[in-house]
Design a protein that fits this description.
alpha/beta; D-Maltodextrin-Binding Protein, domain 2; 2 domains; five-stranded mixed sheet; 16 helices; about 50% helix; signal; thiamine biosynthesis; transferase
């Protein structure tokens, strides 16, 4: 009797130990099934970064078994370089910067590729104070323009120049924080910058929007694409399903951001507590209006692009940036990882 009891106790103990082992193993297996992704933004945690911070805050990435880390950036060129180096798996960068990298580094082992368009129209614009007398692109001829050397609008200005028959201009370089200040003080005749960045920065320096002449590139014959989600070549080969999952979660979050920009800013405030929520809400709304939910984006479909338009941009960027080799648009873009058209139908009708 005692032996039977001991045997039963032994079996019970073994089952308990096996159950305990299984319970301890489950979190490890769950963790092993989660893919970490390091994501590099193009700029600081400002309004537009909500497009990435919202799906992270709402658990959309986690639901796709992705552990996404999002870091602030300091320019599209650096975002491209960091993804190419392998320091980051994915990123957000201006398509022209990606084109330049590929054309100047044809033998790079981990060239990034764009997999989803976000800013269907470039946010680049020229800004001048109305009191300067500058009203049209032609008025820029012979004038002093300012921007950081890496500014997307400055880099692409030769395309704007050619499209609008602008004569020679003089360029002044400065730190990004000084650009709008120098225009407001009259040290410059005009500047280039992102529409939703420079306009609000000028207002913060006491310049009314009604006193500013704004020339958005897309409205003056320059139909360049803006920022896209990019992926390192090696990561794309090893984790194609995870890239698809990332884009699905991002698309779900993007719909939320467009539907409720005010609510979306909470995710940005959570990452950078010192931001001005009202200001960043305005910035986000301007970004949506000028670059995301545009007529071109609605015609091409959110996240997608038009191949002939991409080919034209590749040729224009090669000329304007004086790249070492011509740009192959087919090497820049891969739309096969996009969510379905139905999933990407996020614009209000």
């Amino acid at each position: 009797m005692r032996l039977n009891a001991l045997a039963s106790l032994s079996r019970l103990s073994r089952r308990s130990l096996l159950g305990l082992a299984a319970a301890l193993t489950l979190p490890v297996l769950a963790q092993a099934q989660t893919t970490p992704i390091k994501f590099q933004l193009d700029w600081r945690f400002e309004g537009p970064s909500a497009f990435f911070l919202v799906p992270a805050a709402k658990g959309y990435f986690k639901a796709e078994k992705l552990d996404v880390t999002i870091d602030a950036g300091n320019g599209s060129g650096n975002a491209v370089n960091r993804v190419a180096s392998g320091a980051y798996d994915m990123g957000f960068a201006d398509l022209a910067a990606l084109m330049e990298f590929q054309a100047n580094n044809p033998t790079a082992p981990n060239k990034p590729v764009a997999v989803m368009m976000v800013y269907n129209n470039t946010p680049a614009a020229v800004f001048a104070l109305k009191k300067s007398g500058i009203k049209t692109p032609a008025d820029l001829s012979g004038k002093k323009l300012g921007a950081p050397v890496f500014d997307a609008g400055r880099r692409a200005f030769p395309i704007f120049q050619k499209a609008n028959n602008v004569g020679k201009v003089e360029w002044v370089s400065m730190d990004p924080t000084l650009r709008e200040t120098m225009l407001a003080k009259g040290d410059l005749d005009a500047i280039t910058g992102f529409y939703f960045t420079s306009l609000l920065n000028l207002e913060a320096r006491g310049v009314k929007a009604s006193d500013v002449t704004v020339m958005p590139f897309p409205q003056f014959g320059v139909k360049l694409y803006g920022n896209a989600i990019i992926v390192g070549e090696e990561f794309l080969k090893k984790h194609p399903e995870e890239v698809k999952a990332f884009l699905r979660a991002f698309t779900k979050g993007a719909k939320d951001v467009i539907t409720d920009p005010k609510g979306a800013i909470a995710s940005v405030k959570a990452r950078d507590g010192i931001i001005n929520a009202d200001l960043e809400e305005r910035r986000l709304k301007l970004a949506i209006e000028s670059s995301v939910a545009t007529p071109d984006a609605k015609a091409e479909g959110f996240g997608d692009l038009n191949k002939p338009r991409l080919a034209l941009m590749a040729s224009q960027v090669a000329d304007a940036f004086q790249t070492k080799s011509r740009i192959n648009p087919d090497a820049i873009w891969n739309g096969s990882y996009l969510p379905s058209a139905a999933e990407r139908a996020i614009f209000k009708k």
